[in-house]
Automatic annotation (TrEMBL):
Its main location: membrane. One of its GO terms (cellular component) is plasma membrane. It is a multi-pass membrane protein. The chain crosses the membrane at residues 12-34, 46-67, 87-110, 116-137, 144-164, 170-188, 209-226, 246-267, 279-300, 349-368, 374-395. The keyword tRNA-binding does not apply. It is found in: Cell membrane. InterPro entries: Poly_Biosynth_Transport. PANTHER family: O-ANTIGEN TRANSPORTER-RELATED, PST FAMILY PREDICTED COLANIC ACID TRANSPORTER. This is Polysaccharide biosynthesis protein. Keywords: Cell membrane, Membrane, Transmembrane, Transmembrane helix. The keyword Methyltransferase does not apply. It comes from Schinkia azotoformans LMG 9581.
C-alpha cells in the first residue's frame, strides 16, 4: 500500500486527534468519575456499580458498536447504489432489546438500587446506544477533529455528572449527563438520524453481518468484563474492585493506542484502500513496540498513579498490579489488529476467534480462580489474550485480504 505525503500527513493528524479524543474521555471516566464513585461508596458497593456498568457496557458495545462498524464496512455498498435506510430500523430494534435487558439487570440488583436508579439506568442505556451508533458519521466522513470536539463535550458532561451525583446521590447521573451532552451535539453536527426508517435491497446482507458482529462483539465484551462477571459470584464485590483498580493503569494507558484501531478501520473502509501482508505486519510490529513501551512505563509508574487515585484500595491491589496491567495491554494489542481482519477477511473468522478466545478465557478463568484466587485469574487473563493475539496473526498472515 503506497501513501502520498498528503495522505500520510492526514493519517497522522487523524491518529493525533483520535488519541486526544480518547484521552479526554479516559481522563474524565478513569481519573474523575470512577475514582469519585470509589471514594463515596464502600468497596462492596463500588464493586456492584462496576459490575452493573460492565453489563451495561456489554449491551451498548454489542448492539451499538457492532451497528457502528457494520455501517462503516457496508457504507460503500450503499453509496454505490445511492440508497439510504436499514440502519435506523436496526437501531430502533437494538434500543427496544436493550431496554428489556437493562430492566432485568436493574431488578437483579433491586436490593441495592432504588426504582429511580433503575429508571436512570434505562435512560442511560438509550442515550448511550444512540450516541455510540450515530458517532459513526465522523468515521465515515473522516471528520476526526469534529469527533475530538464531540469527545470533549461528553467528557465535560461526565465530570458535571459526577458533581451532580454528590448532590443527588444517584450514581447513574455521573454517566447519563455525558451521554446526553453527546447526543445533543450529534443532533446538530450529523445527519444519519434523518435517514428513513425503512428497508433497502441491502437489508439482508447488512443484517447477516450485523448478527455475526453482535455475537462476536458480545463474546468479546463478555470476556472484557469477565473479571467482574466471574469474580463477583466467586469472590465478591471487593475482589471486583481490587482487580479493576489493579488493572486500571494498564487499561487507561493502553487506551491511548485504541484510537489507532478506529482510524485504521475508517481508512480501511474507504473505496481506494487495498491491504497487503506487508502493511498488515508493519502495523502489527509498530503496535507491539508501543505495547512493550507502555508495559515498561506501567511497571515503574502504575503503583504510584493508582495509589494517588484509589488510596482506599491500593493496598489490596498492589500484589496484582503488574500482571493485571500486562493482561490489559495484550488485549489492547489484539484490538489494534482486529480492524484489518474485520475489513478484509471473511466476517465468520471473527466468530471463530471469539469462540476460541471465550472458551479459553472462561475455562482458564474459572480454573485460575479455584486454584489461585485473584492471582490465578490474572494469569488466566494473560494466557487467554496471548491465544487470541496469535490467532489473529495466523489468520491475517494466511489471508489474501481480498474479501470485504
Amino acid at each position: 500500500m503506497n501513501f502520498s505525503f498528503r495522505k500520510i500527513k492526514k493519517l497522522i493528524k487523524d491518529f493525533g486527534t483520535s488519541i486526544v479524543a480518547t484521552f479526554l474521555m479516559t481522563f474524565a471516566l478513569q481519573f474523575v468519575v470512577y475514582p469519585y464513585l470509589a471514594l463515596i461508596n464502600s468497596p462492596t458497593e463500588y464493586g456492584i456499580i462496576l459490575t452493573v456498568m460492565g453489563g451495561i457496557n456489554i449491551i451498548v458495545v454489542s448492539l451499538a458498536t457492532s451497528l457502528n462498524n457494520v455501517r462503516l464496512i457496508q457504507n460503500v455498498e450503499y453509496e454505490k447504489k445511492s440508497i439510504k435506510g436499514d440502519f435506523n430500523l436496526l437501531l430502533l430494534i437494538a434500543v427496544l432489546f436493550s431496554l428489556l435487558i437493562t430492566i432485568c439487570i436493574g431488578f437483579f440488583f433491586f436490593d441495592n438500587f432504588s426504582n429511580l436508579t433503575i429508571v436512570l439506568l434505562v435512560v442511560l442505556v438509550i442515550l448511550a446506544i444512540l450516541r455510540t451508533y450515530y458517532m459513526v458519521f465522523y468515521r465515515v466522513k473522516l471528520e476526526f477533529f469534529n469527533n475530538m470536539i464531540f469527545s470533549l463535550i461528553i467528557s465535560i458532561g461526565y465530570i458535571l455528572g459526577a458533581l451532580l451525583t454528590s448532590i443527588t446521590k444517584y450514581w447513574p447521573i455521573a454517566f447519563l449527563i455525558g451521554e446526553l451532552f453527546g447526543c445533543i451535539y450529534l443532533y446538530f453536527t450529523t445527519s444519519f438520524y434523518k435517514e428513513p426508517l425503512s428497508r433497502t435491497v441491502n437489508y439482508k446482507s447488512t443484517v447477516n453481518k450485523y448478527l455475526i458482529l453482535i455475537v462476536t462483539t458480545l463474546i468479546g465484551n463478555l470476556i472484557l468484563y469477565l473479571d467482574r462477571l466471574l469474580l463477583f459470584p466467586f469472590l465478591g464485590g471487593e475482589a471486583v474492585a481490587t482487580y479493576t483498580v489493579a488493572s486500571f493503569f494498564g487499561k487507561s494507558l493502553g487506551m491511548a493506542i485504541i484510537p489507532i484501531s478506529g482510524v485504521l478501520l475508517a481508512h480501511y473502509s474507504q473505496k481506494k484502500f487495498s491491504m497487503t501482508k506487508k502493511f498488515f505486519w508493519q502495523v502489527n510490529i509498530l503496535v507491539i513496540i508501543l505495547s512493550v513501551f507502555f508495559f515498561i512505563i506501567s511497571i515503574y509508574t502504575s503503583e504510584w498513579v493508582t495509589g494517588l487515585l484509589y488510596p482506599s484500595l491500593i493496598e489490596e491491589a498492589k500484589p496484582y498490579i503488574i500482571i493485571a496491567n500486562l493482561a490489559a495491554i495484550i488485549n489492547v494489542t489484539g484490538n489494534i489488529t482486529q480492524p484489518a481482519l474485520l475489513s478484509f477477511c471473511k466476517t465468520s473468522w471473527q466468530l471463530v476467534i471469539q469462540i476460541i478466545y471465550g472458551a479459553a478465557y472462561l475455562g482458564l478463568g474459572v480454573l485460575g480462580i479455584k486454584m489461585g484466587g485473584l492471582y490465578g485469574f490474572c494469569l488466566a487473563a494473560i494466557i487467554s489474550n496471548i491465544i487470541r493475539l496469535l490467532l489473529m496473526y495466523i489468520i491475517g498472515t494466511f489471508s489474501s485480504f481480498s474479501t470485504r
